[in-house]
Specification:
Order of helices and strands of chain A: HHEHHHEHEHHEHEH
Oligomer: heterodimer
Number of helices of chain A: 10
Distance between the termini of chain B: 36 Å
CATH topology of the largest domain in chain B: Rossmann fold
CATH architecture of the largest domain in chain B: 3-Layer(aba) Sandwich
Helix content of chain A: 40-55%
Shape of chain B: globular
Distance between the termini of chain A: 11 Å
Strand content of chain A: 5-15%
CATH class of chain A: Alpha Beta
Structural class of chain A: alpha/beta
Number of strands of chain A: 5
Mean pLDDT of chain B: 97
Order of helices and strands of chain B: HEHEHEHHEHEHEEEHEEHEHEHH
Low-confidence stretches of chain B: none
Largest sheet of chain A: 5 strands, parallel
Largest sheet of chain B: 7 strands, mixed
Structural class of chain B: alpha/beta
Number of domains of chain B: 2
CATH architecture of chain A: 3-Layer(aba) Sandwich
Mean pLDDT of chain A: 96
Chain lengths: 258, 306
């Protein structure tokens, strides 16, 4: 699934010498699904007041976002070729002032999600029906601002907000007490757990999602695999910010071309 | 004189009643005094809670959907603690907001160092699109807020608990323009915000020593009025800068930049040279920081050798 996007991410990182491949592979299936099946946004409505918002809070996974934005024509071939160069608009973390479709500049963890909460609150104040989605890392959930804003969201009844946590167990390497369902539930959120690489489970979750403006905010805990799609990048360890050498690049291309 | 915090509340009612985009968020302070705003503007007042960095992030989100956020809480928590949010969300993303603080410098004199803040103005000044004002009488806040809040800038309003007591006319108050409060020939005293009070008391005392001091008052730190200070120091050749900010980056630096090239001048910096650790009244902490009107007189006499 989405091997062509994973290949694009790999080539971007190999060409530029910058990028977080496993983090991007972990979330690319979800982001692709959102843009294809869920979000009301197109390249033509990217600045529309009526668009849905998607904020990639774990900004270092931006390779996934860029590849999806390219697939749905928000970005050009040249944008991808110029990734992480002085000529381009795409860098190692997304810049909302340059990238069409990047709703927030993220990179410092713990910023994007609270910003999404602000967007949701703002839309609620304006009595608008746009929906807001934020994708955050499970490691990012170490940040205090995640829980501050989770607390605010529940108390402000931001039913127009859906958080998605990339629960690939990066966080548990450092903090094994990793009861994310219990934590989010205790903060007053509706919690769901699915396989974030499964089209059918993504379809089932998002098609049944209720965005009643005064309901509880919702969090999807996506059981993902870091580095999903290539044998040598799956799991934790050295690959987090590693650039493939020529031999590894050939392995990745081969596996992603199958 | 009306308290600045009361004027803040009154101005929010005045502006918010006519502007549906104004949204006020507080970090669990001033909720009593802002009740009239909450009643006048239902659905646009939020006591978010004690979570300052997140409040800045939230304001970023509000700004992204076209609302005009006002964030109000205690200076050290919303500036020093939350500076990364201000920098990344507003500095880099070209968004606008209004940050209105109390408790700058040692205004919360009896609460100790956790509630003191000397670097807020300097930190905000680094952001290219920031505008920084220290209104120290009610009319200054009302005028400057109404002039500024719809500009697409990062607006920082630092409200003092200790107004200087001078009553200006609305027409005298202009963003980025200093006010010559008193004329003199021997020495220029540039005072920032509430320190105008000490400058004026000192001026009276200096007259008994035959010293004529010119008082230049700054409510606007950025943009800074270089012209007025340059004209004054060109005449007096002596300058004291008087402020409650850190000595490492504040009014003194702005003045120095403004007067580069004027020959044969003598200058004295009066600012907070080290963080204050003790407790006491505002006046007592002014004294311990070397910022009393007596200190101004002593420094002026030393500078003039009179």
């Amino acid at each position: 699934m989405n091997n062509e996007l994973r290949l694009m991410i790999t080539e971007m990182v190999k060409r530029s010498g910058e990028g977080h491949i496993p983090s991007s592979f972990s979330i690319v299936d979800i982001i692709e699904f959102l843009y294809r099946r869920v979000l009301k946004i197109t390249p033509q409505t990217v600045n529309s007041d009526d668009r849905d918002y998607f904020i990639l809070s774990k900004g270092h996974g931006c390779g996934a976002l860029y590849s999806v934005l390219h697939k749905f024509k928000f970005l050009t071939d040249q944008d991808i070729l110029d990734y992480s160069t002085s000529k381009g608009i795409l860098g190692g973390h997304p810049d909302s002032t340059r990238v069409p479709g990047a709703e927030a500049s993220t990179g410092s963890l713990g910023h994007g999600f609270p910003t999404a909460v602000g967007v949701a609150l703002g839309l609620k104040i304006k009595k608008k029906s746009n929906r807001v989605f934020a994708l955050l890392g499970d490691g990012e959930c170490h940040e205090g601002t995640i829980w501050e804003s989770a607390n605010i969201s529940a108390n402000q009844k931001l039913g127009n907000l859906c958080a998605i946590v990339d629960w690939n167990e990066s966080a548990a390497q450092l903090m094994p007490v990793d009861d994310l369902p219990g934590k989010w539930k205790s903060f007053g959120w509706d919690v769901a757990i699915i396989d974030g690489h499964s089209q059918s489970e993504l379809e089932s979750f998002f098609s049944n999602l209720d965005f009643d403006i005064d309901s509880k905010p919702k969090v999807l805990l996506a059981k993902n695999i870091k580095g999903k799609g290539v044998s040598i990048t799956e799991g934790h360890g050295a690959w987090h910010h590693k650039i493939p050498n020529d031999e590894e690049f050939e392995i990745m291309k081969r596996e992603l071309s199958l | 004189m009306k308290k600045l915090r009361q004027e803040f509340s009154d101005t929010m009612v005045e502006v918010g009643s006519n502007d549906q985009d104004l949204v006020v968020m507080v970090g669990d302070i001033s909720h009593g005094i802002l009740k009239p705003y909450a009643e006048a503007c239902p659905g646009r007042y939020f006591n978010i809670g004690i979570c300052e960095p997140s409040i800045v992030n939230l304001a970023c989100g509000l700004s992204k959907v076209g609302l005009n956020p006002v964030v109000h809480t205690i200076a050290p928590f919303i500036t020093e603690r939350s500076y990364e949010q201000i920098k990344l969300d507003f500095g880099y993303q070209n968004l606008s907001m209004n940050l209105i603080t109390v408790g700058g410098s040692f205004d919360y004199a009896q609460l100790g160092c956790s509630h003191h803040c000397y670097t807020d103005v300097s930190l905000l000044a680094h952001l290219k699109r920031s505008v920084i004002v220290l209104p120290s009488s009610p009319i200054e806040f009302n005028k400057l807020f109404k002039d500024l809040y719809q500009q697409k800038t990062i607006n920082y309003f630092r409200l003092t608990e200790y107004p200087h007591g001078v009553v200006f006319k609305e027409g005298e108050i202009e963003l980025g323009k200093a006010i010559k409060v008193a004329s003199g020939d021997d020495i220029t005293i540039a005072a920032l915000g509430p320190q105008l009070k000490n400058a004026l008391i000192a001026r009276e005392s200096l007259q008994s020593f035959g010293i004529s001091a010119e008082i230049i008052y700054y409510h606007s730190f950025k943009p800074f009025d270089s012209v007025t200070i340059k004209e004054s120091v060109s005449k007096t050749k002596h300058l004291i800068s008087l402020e409650e900010l850190s000595a490492h980056d504040g009014l003194f630096n702005q003045c120095l930049h403004s007067i580069i090239g004027i020959p044969d001048i003598k200058v004295c910096q009066m600012a907070v040279k080290d963080f204050i650790r003790g407790y006491g009244s505002y006046e007592e902490l002014c004294k311990s920081a070397g910022l009393s009107h007596e200190d101004v007189v002593e420094n002026a006499r030393k500078l003039l050798n009179r």
